[in-house]
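PROTEIN DESIGN WORKSHEET
SECTION A - STRUCTURE
LENGTH: 321
TOKENS:
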């Protein structure tokens, strides 16, 4: 990926975000128009329905009722921290400060709110639906956010119309802690990453194996991020808190090999939660959260985890020549 001057990138990126935010208002105001960009400005007044739809990533969850019906729904991997800490940790997407200057949970990734128990539409498992109380989405009010398999559901403000999936597989440095946004499989509530592509990428002067993420994200489409192996890992060592910092590289099917990658070296291992993790020569692959970046907004393309000594082992990138 060619370098870009930080100041210019920041101006272009923030201008793009500002334009997108301005665009959302007139679209949502049009009579009968459905938009996925609309921010949250008030508490919900009705029960929310969650439905399923077909996409290039497979069957995924979508909004099933209201003005945002048909809009894609996402979960954030770093919200798993709340489950691991019995709800003591903050939400990864909140109204706290971030580099874009807009609240995450009401503008950038609007939380899916409901008044009362959510309704399961066709293809949705009612037993996986739930709610969590939020006090940071609507000023001065406690509201219910819909959850699926325990994780909160969100829309994405760059999904302008129903059916778009601009937030799919977005490796996001703006959330706190950083995490990946995934579409959601209706049957078990697992991430729906689709077919991941592995590529050879030059990062910080090194040619390394990288995962192609941010599939349809306008600011970094098919961004390539270095992947790591764990010295003593053959599939099960990096779980729970480890997997928050070193996120498993996920795929829904056998990964695709981009230019410079040996397709015969790629494989898949099934993790205890049922997700499929990409392997290279049999070794499971990971993303390091400190490598997440958006040009001009947060971070730069780099390798921050090479040689990291952790309680779970040593992480290293995979050189390619």
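SECTION B - SEQUENCE
RESIDUE ASSIGNMENT:
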């Amino acid at each position: 990926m060619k370098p870009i001057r930080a100041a210019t990138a920041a101006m272009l990126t923030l201008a793009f975000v500002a334009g997108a935010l301005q665009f959302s208002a007139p679209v949502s105001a049009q009579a009968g128009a459905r938009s996925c960009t609309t921010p949250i400005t008030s508490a919900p007044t009705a029960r929310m329905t969650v439905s399923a739809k077909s996409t290039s990533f497979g069957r995924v969850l979508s909004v099933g009722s209201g003005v945002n019906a048909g809009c894609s729904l996402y979960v954030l991997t770093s919200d798993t921290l709340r489950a691991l800490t019995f709800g003591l940790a903050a939400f990864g997407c909140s109204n706290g400060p971030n580099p874009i200057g807009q609240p995450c949970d009401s503008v950038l990734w609007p939380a899916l709110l409901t008044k009362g128990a959510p309704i399961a539409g066709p293809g949705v498992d009612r037993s996986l639906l739930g709610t969590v109380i939020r006090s940071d989405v609507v000023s001065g009010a406690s509201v219910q956010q819909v959850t699926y398999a325990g994780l909160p559901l969100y829309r994405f403000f760059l999904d302008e119309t129903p059916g778009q999936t601009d937030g799919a597989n977005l490796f996001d440095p703006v959330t706190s802690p950083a995490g990946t946004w995934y579409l959601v499989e209706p049957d078990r509530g697992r991430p729906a990453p689709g077919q991941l592509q592995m590529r050879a990428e030059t990062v910080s002067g090194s040619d390394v194996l990288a995962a192609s993420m941010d599939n349809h994200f306008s600011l970094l489409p098919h961004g390539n991020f270095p992947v790591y192996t764990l010295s003593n890992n053959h599939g099960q060592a990096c779980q729970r808190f480890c997997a928050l910092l070193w996120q498993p590289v996920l795929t829904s099917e056998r990964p695709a090999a981009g230019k410079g990658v040996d397709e015969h070296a790629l494989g898949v291992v099934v993790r205890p939660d049922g997700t499929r993790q990409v392997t290279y020569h049999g070794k499971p692959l990971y993303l390091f959260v400190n490598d997440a970046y958006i040009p001009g907004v947060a971070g730069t393309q780099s390798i921050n985890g090479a040689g990291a000594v952790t309680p779970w082992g040593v992480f290293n990138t995979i050189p390619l020549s």
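SECTION C - NOTES
Residues 1-16, 18-32 have pLDDT under 50 and may be disordered.
The helical segments are 6-29, 80-84, 104-108, 240-245.
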